[in-house]
Amino acid sequence: MEANKSKQDATFNKNRAERFAVGYLVLTRITSHPANRKSKKLLPKYRGPFKVIEVLPNDRYRVKEDIHTERSNRPYTGVAGVEHMKPFIIQQK
User: Fold this and answer.
1) Which of 17, 36, 67, 88 would be 82's cystine partner, CB 3.0–4.6 Å?
2) Which domain of life is it from (predicted)?
3) How far apart are CA 62 and CA 60, in angstroms?
């Protein structure tokens, strides 16, 4: 009975959404692209990195654009769902 329960738990947790803490760097999925007649296949699928600044209910996170990657005068701040986020991994060379 316990072996069956642990197997079911492992199967369920395999697809469970990842949790992020305040301060994590994440990438957010770009859900729509402007109609500029370019193939979406070649456009980036994620943008960022963003820093998690607040954990909200229902797997939502308030994110803020990192200061070092500003693309405009004001850094972007918004709410993102965990299903549209993935961790930002810094590659060491």
Assistant:
1) 17
2) Eukaryota
3) 7
Instruction: Give the tens place of pLDDT for each residue, 4-47.
Output: 888 888 887 777 777 899 999 999 998 877 777 777 788 889 98
Torsion sign across C-alpha atoms 70, 55, 29, 78: negative
Tokens of 12: 């369920």
Q: What is the pTM of this model?
A: 0.73
Say which residue the tokens 């909200």 belong to. 56
pLDDT number for residue 50: 92
Residue 43 sits at the vertex; the CA angle it makes with 42 and 46, to the nearest 5 degrees, is 130
Averaged pLDDT score across all residues of the chain: 84
How many alpha carbons lie under 13 Å from residue 49 in its C-beta half-sphere? 14
Please enumerate, as own/partner, the contacts of 15-18 that have beta carbons within 8 Å and a separation of 24 or more. Answer: 17/59, 17/82, 17/83, 18/82, 18/85, 18/86, 18/87
